[in-house]
Every structure is written in C-alpha cells, then in structure tokens.
Amino acid sequence: MGLTYAEVELINRDDLAMARKFIIGEEDVRRMHVEMLVDTGAYMLAINESIQEQLQFPVVEKRKFELGNGHIVEYDVVASVELKFKNRRTNCNAVVLPGNTEPLLGAIPLEDMDVLVHPQKQELIVNPDHPYFAVMKMK
Which CATH superfamily is domain 5-126 in? Predict the structure, then answer.
C-alpha cells in the first residue's frame, strides 16, 4: 500500500466571520488549496510555517509532541482553521510544523468529516454509507 494524498481547502475562519459581518469582503478571506498527506496515524491536522504565514491563523498555545523516533518537540498550535474536502467541512486546530514540512491530514479532521481512505485506489473518499452529509457517532 502506498501513500494517500488529498487536495483540501484551508480557510481562515476568523476572516469568514468578518466577511459574514461585512467587515471585509468575501474576496479578502484568506484561503488556499493544499495537497496533504492523509495520515491516519497522525492525531491532528498539521500545516507548515509557509501555510501559516499566508493564512495567519491565530496561535492559541504551544504544545509538546512526540515524534515517531521518540523525540519530544514543541510546536505552535493554531485555531480557526476551516478545512473543506468535497462536500465536507470541519473546523479544527492545527499544529504548525517547521519550514516547508509536508502538511498532514490526521485522524480528528478525517473522523469529523466522515471520510475514508480507499486503500486500493489510494485516495480519500466521502463515506459511501453517508454520501450527502457527514454522520458522527455519539457513543
């Protein structure tokens, strides 16, 4: 099995809120399309400093993370991230990785959007059991 990538749209949610109140125009909402590695072993959404520089998500905390090699590192965590994939969307926090590190789409946003990794096609798909809207488990 190989790697799975998905194109998602990242949007600054604070900008969206200001556009809804007509403080800024819709064209001023910071957003970008990003090709992300779908990593079901990763917990959170992870963006890099380059994406953060362009979209200016607010930093809410610094947090320690354990890497695959066991090293503990500290990174910024940002809020107000809206993520869109096909007919799904979620709002979440994201860890900011250094430099141009490859961005990761982790388990929390995947679960929230009710999407699945299709292993044979090596692609992210909308859950075929719920093709029109996301369904979340409450238990």
Answer: Acid Proteases (2.40.70.10)
